[in-house]
Automatic annotation (TrEMBL):
It is found in: Secreted, Extracellular space, Apoplast. The lineage of its organism: Eukaryota, Viridiplantae, Streptophyta, Embryophyta, Tracheophyta. This is Germin-like protein. It comes from the Eukaryota. Oxalate binds at H112, E117. SMART domains: Cupin_1 (SM00835). Keywords: Apoplast, Disulfide bond, Glycoprotein, Manganese, Metal-binding, Receptor, Secreted, Signal. It comes from Rhamnella rubrinervis. Residues 62-208 form the Cupin type-1 domain. One of its GO terms (cellular component) is apoplast. Coiled coil: none annotated. CDD domains: cupin_OxOx. Belongs to the germin family.
Length: 218
């Protein structure tokens, strides 16, 4: 009984020491994994560039300082600093983005399957929200200086609800959070209109019209 008690009490300490050395060992082996765009991308991300080929430019990205072109159907532009744009964030579990919205502009319902998002409004006014898996809506009007979190995988959107251009920056809990726009999923594809109609309960004429706008076929 006495020996079993001692083992039970010491196991958490042993586990802590083991995990400490595992994490320390990993950190000592490799400080970073800069994306090697010449190698295939796998489920875990890009392969690592050889350390001798890494430069400081692999960790620097200037794209978020440039306003995007909002002359499009959604009157919005999104600029990303994912691992596909900024090789230095590969494997680090972080990334950034910028969204410019003209008056009336919208980032339509979309999801990020690989990471949660936190948005900071730098200019303008946004109507933003997300829908939980229980179909509860979380909706808020955001003004300059406000921040809102959008949990991983949940459908969410941002609309410029003001009369002036809006700008917000986003951070993600993944170097490659992914992006899937609901409208593109439904209408920018080659699924027959009849199938989309049956699966979505939408009118076939509406589906054909939207497929024509977004480039879908069928």
């Amino acid at each position: 009984m006495h020996l079993a008690y001692k083992v039970k009490m010491s196991f958490p300490a042993l586990l802590f020491i083991f995990s400490f050395f595992v994490s320390f060992s990993h950190a000592a082996v490799q400080d970073f994994c800069v994306a090697d765009y010449t190698a295939p991308e796998g489920p875990a991300g890009y392969s690592c560039k050889k350390p001798e080929k890494v430069t400081v430019d692999d960790f620097v990205f200037s794209g978020l300082g440039v306003a995007g072109n909002t002359s499009n159907i959604i009157k919005a532009a999104v600029t990303t600093a994912f691992s596909s744009d900024l090789p230095g964030v590969n494997g680090l579990g972080v990334s950034l983005g910028r969204a410019d919205l003209a008056p009336g502009g919208v980032v339509p319902f979309h999801t990020h399957p690989g990471g949660s998002e936190i948005a900071y409004v730098a200019k303008g006014t946004l109507c933003a929200g997300f829908v939980s898996s229980a179909n509860k809506v979380y909706l808020k009007t955001l003004k300059q200086g406000d921040t809102m979190v959008f949990p991983q995988g949940l459908l969410h959107f941002q609309i410029n609800s003001g009369k002036t251009p809006a700008l917000f920056f986003v951070a993600f809990s993944s170097a490659s959070p992914g992006l899937q726009l609901l409208d593109y999923v439904l209408f920018k594809n080659d699924l027959p209109t009849e199938i989309v109609s049956e699966a979505s309960f939408l009118d076939p004429d509406v589906i054909k019209k939207l497929k024509g706008v977004l480039g879908g076929t069928g």
